[in-house]
Amino acid sequence: MQALSVIERSVPYDLLMAKGRPSKRPRSAFGERLASAREQLGLSQMQLAQRLGVSQKVITYWERNEVALRSEQLTAIAEALGISVEELLGQPKSKSRPGGPVGKARLMFEAVSKLPRRQQDKIFDILEPFVKEHRKRRLA
Fold this sequence. Notes:
The chain is mostly helical. The chain is 58% helix and 0% strand. It contains eight helices and no strands.
């Protein structure tokens, strides 16, 4: 007769598995900023890759290795992450004076920009029809 082995787990097997293979080397300074900005938005490497039109392996490479990116790549990454190129490169922010009084709408959108991307998308879905209608009326 053959013996059967039964193992009981209180946590599903998938939750016990580490996500991805750990790297043997530390991230570059740029890679650390890139990963941090991506994670703050709650994006996976695959989601960022889709926004940029590259593969997930490219994002992994950028986060793990010293890279020399073209200016248009840096601009696209910064836009996808909603940060400035200077912030992505770790340069101090330039001190610029605001161009006038800060209105209620600007304050609200600054607060919205700090929300997770999914919540921002819900807000934009509500606002876009109003903005489109306003533009239509101005052009007519």
